Amino acid sequence: GIAERLRADYGVPCEVIVASGDPAATVLDTAERANCDLVITPYETEDGALSPYIRTVLSGPVDAIVHRSTGTTDWRRVMVPIARPGDTAHAMVDFASRLAGDDGRVSVCTCIDADGSRRAAEHRLSNVVETFDGPVETRVARAEITTYIEENAGAYDLVMLGSSGERSTASRLISPPTFKRLKEVDCDVAVVDRGDVGR
């Protein structure tokens, strides 16, 4: 089954649970009972906004990854745009490195405006990636982040973004106009939320 395939492909313990009831509450309860530290779920909307299921998972205590798939299951080239160093940035690079594997490539990038200091941005990125052994490169671009992602995503299998811990749950994942623009990119998009760590 799927649990065995995930265990074999990624080396992570995985169990399949069938339960009835509210899907989000069931997922969060199961994650707590199983001492699970990560919930991965497909991206879904309802009436142009995040579905109630996604909102509940994102407001829960467990780290979550919301994934918009193009159908690929091999993520060897992963772009990780970050705004600032911190727990979420480290988690994203960690998840990306695991997905890319030893033969993959992770590109950690940040965008600065015309007044931004390239040297300071490079220093921030080097602080984020210094603890990782795998093939991780850093990039600093003078561009708006969504435009940068749109222009470069074709070279990647996955773009991994962080949710905003400073905003309300309703807007945490990513602002709808931004996500709508990213629907046009030709790769998978995953958004990482650090659960209670980010609040």
UniProtKB/TrEMBL annotation:
Superkingdom of the organism of origin: Archaea
Gene3D superfamilies: 3.40.50.12370
SUPFAM superfamilies noted in UniProt: Adenine nucleotide alpha hydrolases-like
Name of the protein this chain belongs to: HPP family protein
Species of the source: Halolamina salina
